[in-house]
Amino acid sequence: MSGKPSVLFVCVHNAGRSQMAAGWLRHLAGDRVEVRSAGSAPGDRVNPAAVAAMAEVGIDIAGQTPTKLAGETAESSDVIVTMGCGDACPVFPGKRYEDWKIEDPAGKGVDAVRPIRDEIRARIENLLTELLPTGP
User: Fold this and answer.
1) Which of 13, 34, 122, 124 would staple 6 via disulfide (CB 3.0–4.6 Å)?
2) 87 catalytic, yes or no?
3) CATH at 98
4) Is 35 a catalytic residue?
């Protein structure tokens, strides 16, 4: 990586886990990291329980829109974090990949999404210590 690192979060619907991860990274890293998220089969909207859980910690992801994963987005990202998209996630040589096994918040209420939100935050904090030597 040279300059500002870019991170792409990918899950199937780009409506829950990847949106929460992108929200956390934007919140914790500010403009020091380029943040992207996409899905292999994007949903119609961001999961309302994910929006509510993130709002509880002061992060607004309500205005985000699920986006279809494009090959050029993945190619231009330094780190690709997959979250349950399996074989639908493309693989590009020379990219750093992480596969985060995180429960899917789809169909769950905000009480069930809070622990998922908190797990994602911990993973984002760990990722930031690797990406930014000065830390979050």
Assistant:
1) 34
2) no
3) 3.40.50.2300
4) no
Domain count, the chain: 1
The reply to whether 1 falls in a domain is no
Q: Indicate whether 17 pLDDT > 70.
A: yes
Q: Is 57 a catalytic residue?
A: no
Range of 60's domain?
Answer: 6-131
Q: Which residues contact 116 (CB under 8 A, 6 or more apart)?
A: 16, 17, 20, 53, 102, 103, 105, 108
- Residue-wise pLDDT for 42-84, tens only, equals 999 999 999 999 999 999 999 999 999 888 898 899 999 999 7
Of the candidates 77, 63, 95, which has an alpha carbon nearest to the alpha carbon of residue 33? 77
109 within some domain:
yes
pTM above 0.85, yes or no: yes
